[in-house]
Task: structure prediction
Amino acid sequence: MPGVVRTSPILVNLDRDGYLDAVVYSQTMVFEGELWRGEGYLSLITSEGTTMSTKKFVEWENELMLGGPLASPIIIGDPPMPITAAPDSAIHADGFGFPLKPGGAIRCAPAAGDIDGDGWVELVAPSGGSVHCFELCSAAYPGDALWWPLLRRNAERTACYGYEPVSSVDEEDEPANPSITSLRSIYPNPFNPVTRIAFDVAERSRVRIAMYDVSGREVALLVNREMEPGRYEVTWKGTTSAGRAAASGVYFCRLEAGRTVETRKGVLLR
Result:
């Protein structure tokens, strides 16, 4: 990719092959005549580690506008579309209505979501001492296609693609440190669309909990981190890792921790 990478990468299945790809924003400076011209690029790196495409999104003519590192892009839309803020004080994307110009320098990533609940996605960015909100009134930006809608992706700001917050469980007359690692329950089951998955961790280990459909395809990754011994609970809201509603049917919850591998069946009814 051209120039210097200015942001941390973000992950999304942009090429629709079932594997996550990385998107990064890079900048380079070109000297022409007596002026430096800056150029900003978005590059897609596939799951095989090869650069599939690079697109120049912005140019500017003032070297001082390079500034510090910008926040990572976000990705919304169907098909998925990267959106990035750039030193020319605009929000850029390869879609209808862009670039958006709040009227001042943008020093962080925009954020996307259906803030007012009207079915249209809003794009929010601070600029010039104010917070600007743009409504994207287009079927290309459905509210359930928020692939990477804000910096570090989710409300818990974990930077994890596909994540539900995990809470510890303190139950009376139950040991603080379980003797075995296991999936305790999925409740309610059947569910519509939310269920709680209770599990025990007997010793410090990396815990991975994911939901799979009947074909064995991973639908949502709920937990993937080091965890201390204890009793825990994670909620699955019946959505895929991309934030879309999962279809009704049978799903399998799989726990992997150390040498423990355990699976339980759940039924999603809509």
